[in-house]
């Protein structure tokens, strides 16, 4: 594990939401990482004043790696496209959000920083601006030319990965194929070994249908698609249990010795994880050539500039990114 101070880029997210707030609150404390926040310095100054928090903003590039100091924010300036009223979305600023993500990703790809941490964005307002956007995971995969990203969320010892991400439920069965599952399991295995230091992760694979298909009586995806993929990866030495019924998969007895649960779709696994650790969980993208983590919550427009937004998930995302960088 490397002892080098990690360099983290932090994209501040939707400007009308809590992204700027949690970045400012995080900057109130010291970190064992060099953190560069992407966003509009004037927005941060105005929001810090609204929150009643002291903030010294530095926009000068620094060539050496410097640990984050309490009360200071090093900013890579990206200018807002329009005005910003807390809690009120403005599609004019969609390009601002995208530019932050592009610049943060490119910094990682070209060695300017070691990892990208992202505050929440609002998918709807980005699409309203005419920019196709289904989520960070898909955007970053395209930007990095990564063919098969895998979304992983972690809350303490509980990790949940997804076989499909932001899809309408009716499209999920067709998207779950043996080929895609083999790719997902391969990315998951490599990512957990490389980024988390696990020797050989043990994966619990969920079925797609109720009761994991009930032997084919409630659907054949488990027999025809999921089980064959699991067998291919077992033959390569991967430790896999499943497919199992999702409704009993998350009890403590079943999770004993399990490193990660692979859910077939977004709302099969994430409600359990967010119940267990909402506000402290971390969203991680595996399968990219860069390290990327994020918060586990949305833009919370109603909390913007109120001082009520919690930043624990951002702290967890920063810590997770730094730890992944140190693992190499």
Number of helices: 11
Mind telling me which CATH architecture of the largest domain this is? Answer: 3-Layer(aba) Sandwich
Q: Which range best describes the helical content: under 10%, 10-25%, 25-40%, 40-55%, 55-70% or over 70%?
A: 25-40%
Structural class: alpha/beta
Count up the domains. Answer: 2
Distance between the termini: 7 Å
Shape: globular
- In round numbers, the mean pLDDT is 95
Uncertain stretches: none
Spatial order of the strands in the main sheet? 3-4-2-1-5-12-11-6-7-10-8-9
Task: Quickly name the level 1 CATH class of the largest domain.
Answer: Alpha Beta
The biggest beta sheet is recorded as:
12 strands, mixed
- Give the strand content: 15-25%
Could you say what the CATH topology of the largest domain is called?
Answer: Isopropylmalate Dehydrogenase
Can you identify the CATH superfamily of the largest domain?
Answer: Isopropylmalate Dehydrogenase
The secondary-structure element order is EHEHEEHEHHEEHHEHEHEHEEH
Number of extended strands: 12
Gyration radius from CA atoms, angstroms: 20 Å
């Amino acid at each position: 594990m490397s002892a080098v101070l990690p360099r983290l880029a932090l994209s501040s997210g939707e400007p009308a939401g809590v992204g700027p707030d949690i970045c400012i609150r995080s900057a109130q404390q010291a970190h064992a990482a060099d953190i560069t926040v992407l966003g509009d310095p004037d927005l941060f100054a105005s929001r810090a004043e609204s929150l009643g928090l002291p903030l010294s903003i530095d926009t000068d590039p620094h060539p050496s790696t410097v640990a984050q100091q309490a009360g200071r924010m090093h900013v890579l300036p990206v200018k807002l496209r329009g005005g910003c009223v807390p809690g009120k979305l403005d599609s004019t600023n969609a390009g601002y959000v995208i530019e932050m993500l592009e610049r943060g990703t490119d910094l990682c790809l070209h060695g300017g920083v070691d990892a990208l941490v992202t505050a929440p964005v609002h998918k709807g307002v980005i699409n309203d601006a005419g920019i196709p956007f289904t989520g960070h995971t898909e955007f970053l995969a395209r930007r990095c030319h990564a063919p098969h990203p895998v979304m992983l969320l972690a809350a303490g010892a509980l990790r949940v990965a997804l076989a499909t991400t932001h899809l309408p439920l009716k499209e999920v069965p067709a998207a779950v194929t043996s080929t895609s599952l083999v790719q997902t399991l391969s990315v998951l295995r490599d990512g957990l070994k490389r980024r988390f230091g696990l020797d050989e992760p043990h994966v619990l694979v969920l079925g797609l249908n109720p009761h994991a298909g009930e032997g084919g009586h409630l659907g054949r995806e488990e027999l025809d698609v999921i089980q064959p993929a699991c067998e291919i990866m077992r033959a390569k030495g991967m430790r896999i249990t499943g497919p199992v019924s999702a409704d009993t998969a998350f009890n403590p007895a079943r999770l004993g010795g399990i490193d990660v649960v692979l859910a077939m779709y977004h709302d099969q696994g994430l409600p359990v994880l967010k119940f267990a650790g909402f506000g402290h969980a971390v969203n991680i993208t595996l399968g990219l050539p860069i390290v990327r983590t994020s918060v586990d919550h949305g833009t919370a427009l109603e909390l913007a500039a109120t001082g009520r937004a919690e930043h624990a998930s951002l702290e967890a995302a920063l810590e997770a990114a730094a730890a992944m960088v140190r693992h190499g």
